[in-house]
Amino acid sequence: MLVRLITLGLALLFAVGVQARELRVALGAQEANLLHSPVEVGKARPQPGGLSGFNEALAREICRRVAARCVISYLTFAEILPGVEAGQFDLGFGNYLRTPEREKRVAFSESIWRSSSRLVAKPQVIQDLARRIQQEVTLDSLRGVRVAAVEGTQQYVYLRHVAEAQALTVVSFKTMGESLAGLKQNRVDFSLLPMLSVFAQFATEAPGSFEFAGPPVADRGMGGTVHIAIPKQKEDVLLVVNQAILAMRADGTYQRIVRQFFPFSLD
Questions:
Q1: pLDDT band with cut points at 50, 70 and 90 for residue 87
Q2: How many CB atoms lie within 10 A of CB 139?
Q3: How far apart are CA 77 and CA 30, in angstroms?
Q4: DSSP notation for the chain
Q5: What is the Cα gyration radius of the chain?
Q6: Cα(first)–Cα(last) distance of the chain, in Å?
C-alpha cells in the first residue's frame, strides 16, 4: 500500500510540478571514448559493469518512473558539477559526496550509496615501496611516489593537500580509465580512487595486474554518502527524484539493480 501511495504521489508531483518532457542527465564516463556523446535513454550503449553501469541503470530507472525522456551525456567528473550548477543538466551522476562547498553550488538527492577510497597499484610497486619504507603501504605511509587521482575529486583535493609533507608528485587524469592506464604504462606509481569505481575493473584485468594497498579510507572527506547533483533552481526535479529513490528502495527495485553489478550491499 505504501509503495502504491508513493508511486501515485510521484506521478502526480511530476505531472503537476515538473511539467517536463525531457531530463538532461550527466553521467561520469569511465572511459574517454564515451565523452560528450548525448544519447537518448533506450538508445545508449550501456557503460561497462561496476559503478558506471550501476549509475546508468539507476538513471534509466528514475527516468522511467518519472515518465520523462532522458538524454544522457557522458562527461568527465570535473565537468559534471559545473554543468549542473549552470542548469545545463538536470541530474548529475558523478558519485558526489555531499560537502559544504558543493552544497553552495547544487542541491543533492537522497543518498544512493556509501563511498570509501582505496590506493591501487601494481603488486610489485607495493612490495618495493613497503621494503623501502619498512612498513605497510597505506595512504599515510606513502612517501616520494607519483600518485594519480581523477581531476576535481575529493581524492585529488586530499592528495594536493598532503603532497608537500609526504613528498608526493600528484598527477590528475580526466577518467578512472585513464588513471589505471597510467599505472599500466608506469606513468604513475599509485592511484587513489573510489573503491567501487575499481572493483569491477579488477575483474576485467589479467589476474595480479593491480592490488589495493592499505585499508579503505572513509574519513578526510573521502568517504560517506553519495548523491545525485541537481540544479538548485530545479526544486520540482529534486522532489520527484527523491520520491523515485524512496519508491525504488521500498519496492526492492534499488536492491535488484545493486545485485546486477555488485555481490554486496552499497549502504
A1: very high
A2: 23
A3: 9
A4: -HHHHHHHHHHHHIIIII--SEEEEEEE-SSGGGTT--EETTTS----SHHHHHHHHHHHHHHHHTT-EEEEEEE-HHHHHHHHHTTS-SEEEEEEE--HHHHTT-EEEEEEEEE-EEEEE-HHHHHHHHHHHTS---TTT--S-EEEEETTSHHHHHHHHHTTTTT-EEEEESSHHHHHHHHHTTS-SEEEEEHHHHHHHHHHSPTTS-EEEEEEE-STTS-EEEEEEE-TT-HHHHHHHHHHHHHHHHHTHHHHHHHHH-SS---
A5: 19
A6: 25
Domains assigned to the chain: 2-115+224-261 (3.40.190.10), 117-217 (3.40.190.10)
Residue with the larger pLDDT of the pair 21 and 15: 21
Instruction: Report whether pLDDT(46) > 60.
Output: no
pTM for this predicted structure: 0.79
C-alpha cell at 17: 510540478
What are residue 193's DSSP bridge partners? 118
Which residue type, as a one-letter code, is found at position 250? A
Crossing angle for the helix pair 195-204 and 176-184, nearest 10 degrees? Answer: 50
Angle, CA 114 vertex, CA 109 and CA 116 arms, to 5°: 130
Do the beta carbons of residue 191 and residue 121 sit within 8 Å?
A: yes
CA distance 176 to 34: 13
Cα separation, 40 vs 241, whole angstroms: 19
Return the C-alpha torsion angle 249, 254, 258, 264, nearest 10: 10
pLDDT greater at residue 1 or residue 41 = 1
The pLDDT, as a whole number, for residue 204 is 78
| CA dist 72 → 42, 64, 67 (Å) | 10, 14, 15
